[in-house]
Amino acid sequence: MALTAEFYRHLHQIEENYGSVSKAPENDLNLIAVHHLIEKNDAEREIRALDLLKQGMSEYSTSMQTGIVIAKIKRMRQSHHIPLVPVFHYQIDNIYFPTTHQIARYYKHDETAILNRLRYQGKRIIKNEFIWKNIPINGEYVARNSRLYVKKSSNINTFLS
Question: pLDDT at residue 39 above 90?
Fold first, then answer.
């Protein structure tokens, strides 16, 4: 949570008046202001988390960027019906793959040294972290079932459709 100068001003006033936040009465204007600032910050973080999830960011990465615990991120994703989309770690000749396992299944090879075999065949391989928003419209990707899909929309709900 990003704490502002205004937050600290109210907090110091509470400590100066009562010695501790725990001793401040519930109707103290500084305590009310502190609670309001915390709630506002939490709402902003939740909006940011939903935006990251809709871009295809993983629950873990969303948690790390917003400071919201993973369990809450999962509940938010589920309650907003945001599909769990994998992070794509490989781009091979403009097709995005989450894992080497999907690469091997798609190209019908065993997983052992699949990337070296594809390089030998002249395939261009980029290893990176690509989230849903990084895949261009009409870009091709392979999902969990090792089928090839074409991204038709930036809307994450079109994943696997």
Answer: no
The arithmetic mean of pLDDT across residues 33-47, rounded, is: 80
Residue 57 has pLDDT above 90, yes or no: yes
DSSP secondary structure string for all residues of the chain: -PPPHHHHHHHHHHHHHHSSGGGS-TT-HHHHHHHHHHHHHHHHHHHHHHHHHHHT--HHHHHHHH---HHHHHHHHHHTT----PPEEEEETTEEES-HHHHHHHHT--STTHHHHHHHTT--EEEEEE-GGGSPTT-EEE-TT--EEE---S-GGGTT-
Whole-prediction pTM value? 0.73
Q: Residue 104 corresponds to which tokens in the numbers above?
A: 């091997």
Question: Are 142 and 106 spatial neighbours (Cβ–Cβ below 8 Å)?
Answer: yes
Q: Which of 38-42, 91-95, 113-117 is least confident? A: 38-42
CA-wise closest residue to 62 among 52, 75, 77: 52
**Residues in Cβ contact with 94 at an 8 Å cutoff, skipping those fewer than 6 apart:** 139, 140
Q: In the structure encoding, which two tokens stand for residue 2, read together?
A: 């990003």
